[in-house]
Amino acid sequence: MGEEEKLEQQEEKIVMGGKADQIVNCQRCGKEIKVQDGHSFETEDGKEVYVCNDCIAQINQALEEETKNPNIFGALLLGLIAGIVCGLVWYFVVTMSNTEYAILTILMGWFIGSAVCKGAGNKKGMRLQIIAALLTAITLVLSELFIGLNFIASDPEVNMTISQLFLGSIFTGDIFNQLWEVIKNAGPIGLLIWGFGLFWAYSIPRPTKI
Ligand SMILES: [Zn+2]
Question: Measured in angstroms, how far is the CA atom of residue 15 from the centroid of ligand 1?
Fold first, then answer.
């Protein structure tokens, strides 16, 4: 793709410049290689560095390992625990301060994303990215629901506790309407703040690129 095209262009440039036989050191292991036998990369400050074939093979293998056979059950389990912890923190902070903090959803996304990677056996990959984002979304929506129920239960005319209200809404099937209300009530700013968390959760298990 774009990266390959860039590499091809760079290689063309090398041949045209007559550098192909020049001896350089592999950036990773230090071995001396001819420019034409190495892979060239451009560093952020525009310098050209070379990596030998052996190192490229090792890097590719490590990257493959990183996404291979993730423990999905472990990812879900640890992600769920992280979600419950984050949900409680979110519930108490929002109930007490009446404010939704973007920094908190970012931390939440980071925490749940990291837990998912860890639970998967220190793995990354698309499936884990989706799991992390979904768990973060569920955590946010559910804790917002409880914040809403807390508000309802605080009305002295409503003679029910939060858990009674919650169980009631599950038994009557009203839970889905309530969850939908929570999403609608979040408003554009609220959804944006949630979005930061989702984006962060989705980013943490992203496979490493070279
Ligand atoms: Zn090397």
Answer: 21
- Domains belonging to the chain, first-starting first, are 2-66 (2.30.170), 69-203 (no CATH)
- In this predicted model, what pLDDT tens digit does every residue of 147-165 receive, in sequence order? 999 988 989 898 899 999 9
Q: How far apart are CA 57 and CA 73, in angstroms?
A: 30
Q: How far is the CA of 125 from the centre of ligand 1 (A)?
A: 26
pTM: 0.79
Q: What angle do CA 151, 155, 161 make, to 5 degrees?
A: 70
Average pLDDT over residues 4-23: 64
CA of 59 to the centre of ligand 1 (A): 10
